[in-house]
Design goal:
Blueprint: E1 2-8, E2 13-19, E3 24-32, E4 40-45, E5 51-54, H1 60-72, E6 85-92, E7 103-104, H2 107-115, H3 124-137, E8 142-147, H4 157-160, H5 166-172, H6 181-195, E9 203-209, E10 213-219, E11 222-226, H7 248-256, H8 261-270, H9 273-278, H10 284-292, H11 296-320, E12 325-329, H12 330-335, H13 337-344, E13 366-367, E14 376-379, H14 384-396
Parallel strand pairs: 1-6, 6-8, 9-12, 12-14
Antiparallel strand pairs: 1-2, 2-3, 3-4, 4-5, 7-8, 9-10, 10-11, 13-14
Helix pairs in contact: 1-3, 10-11, 11-13
Bound molecules: adenosine-5'-diphosphate.
Length: 397
């Protein structure tokens, strides 16, 4: 079966067509500037150069039409006709408390998704538009929603409730949800495979470190805690997001800087994190270069990032009553060996220790633990699209 994986944003749409029999990506691409002048489609068939197709895309449905045209094109296409697409898997950011797993999309599911808009105003509307665009262009093809929040729904009450009046949980569903669930799910499963053990017998801390970052405690295959919260702003320091701060800072800054809700949201989401602290960049490659050249704030930002993750590894080991493996994934986690070393160094008392030579390797799943470590440290490239395709196949079969 061939599955089309869609990740729809407000003005962009990423896709991959995956052959599930071969577990192989046939083509992938990105529609940019949907609904804006100058829209284009970057389409890359496996093993071939990127093709750029410039064409107006007033709506997401137009974008999907162009994607299908590209996939069946005589020159750069990879399938004979649209009929070869067996199902569509959609990444959906927020499933609220309604979804603890992936679902086949029907009218009732779409209503539940709309109910979650308030919880993810930046993401869920675009995800719904993506779903409706596919329904329009590919009628009759089964569509599946895979949620960033679903894997985290196993958290116990003590981990997901906030210390504010309970009535706000009841009234507004204010609680910890967690994000990057598809990635945490994928890499914890891969970790069990790499260790040759049943995930039900493992305590794993997964560190998804990219532009947005989160750390999750996976005990016996189930999430028991995670760093992101009601929104993806919470937890560890990120590229441009603050992560956890004293909540009183919000009202203090609003008053002193005369900021409204939009203004303070911008400060915390776009102007904070390693970017805000360093004043240099949100990209870890730029930060490392700046720190090497003696930039003190870039150095401080990198140290804050590693220190915050180290603290969570310790606290999640305590929460799980031990830890068997630490997993690093996503842009920073997979590529930045120095940051991995900074996080792990000092955790020897927990039996966590890496081999500095192995830790230099990049681009593949690898065990970077030192030979005398009792806890494994693994680097595992994430593959959210493959995970979405696997979930989709499971449901439509
Ligand atoms: P997103 O959260 O947008 O999916 P990614 O997981 O792709 O992000 O991570 C992007 C980040 O990964 C970049 O901002 C950069 O900081 C980091 N990164 C990518 N390659 C490297 C590298 N070779 N060394 C250090 N950091 C890297």
């Amino acid at each position: 079966m061939k599955i089309l994986v869609i990740n729809a944003g407000s003005s962009s749409l990423k896709y991959q067509l995956i052959d599930m029999d071969e577990k192989k990506v046939l083509a992938k691409g990105l529609c940019e500037r949907i609904g804006i002048e100058g829209s284009r489609l970057n389409h890359t068939p496996a093993g071939c150069d990127k093709v750029v197709i410039e064409s107006p895309m007033p709506s997401h449905a137009d974008a999907i039409k162009l994607v299908i045209d590209a996939l069946v094109d005589k020159n750069h296409g990879v399938i004979g006709s649209m009929a070869e697409i067996g199902a569509v898997g959609h990444r959906v950011v927020h499933g609220g408390e309604s979804f603890s797993g992936s679902v086949i999309i029907d009218e009732e599911v779409k209503k539940a998704l709309r109910d979650c808009i308030e919880l993810a105003p930046l993401h869920n509307p675009a995800n719904i538009i993506g779903i409706e665009a596919c329904e329009k262009v590919m009628p009759g093809v089964k569509q599946v929603g895979v949620f960033d929040t679903a894997f985290h729904q196993t958290m116990p009450e003590e981990a997901y409730l906030y210390g504010i009046p309970y009535k706000y949980y009841e009234k507004y569903k204010i609680r910890r949800y967690g994000f990057h669930g598809t990635s945490h799910n994928y890499v914890s499963g891969k970790a069990a495979e790499m260790l040759g053990k049943d995930i039900k017998d493992l305590k794993i801390v997964t560190c998804h470190l990219g532009n947005g970052s989160s750390v999750t405690a996976v005990k016996n295959g189930k999430v028991i805690d995670t760093t992101m919260g009601l929104t993806p702003l919470a937890g560890i320091l990120m590229g441009t997001r603050s992560g956890d701060i004293d909540p009183a800072i919000v009202t203090f800054l609003m008053e002193k800087e005369n900021l409204d809700i939009e203004g303070i949201n911008k400060v915390l989401n776009k102007e904070s994190g390693v970017f805000g602290v360093s004043g240099v960049s949100s990209d870890f490659r730029d930060l490392s270069s700046a720190a090497e050249e003696g930039n003190k704030r870039a150095n401080a930002a990198l140290k804050m990032f590693s220190y915050g993750i180290k603290k969570y590894i310790g606290s999640y080991a305590a929460a799980m009553g031990g830890v068997d493996a630490i997993v690093f994934t996503a842009g920073v986690g997979e590529n930045d060996s120095q940051t991995r070393a900074d996080i792990i160094n000092g955790l020897e008392f927990l039996g966590i220790k890496i081999d500095s030579e192995k830790n230099k390797l990049r681009g593949k799943a690898i065990d970077v633990s030192a030979s005398d470590a009792t806890v494994k440290t693994l680097v595992i490239p994430t593959d959210e699209e493959m995970m979405i395709a696997l979930e989709t196949e499971l449901l439509v079969k």
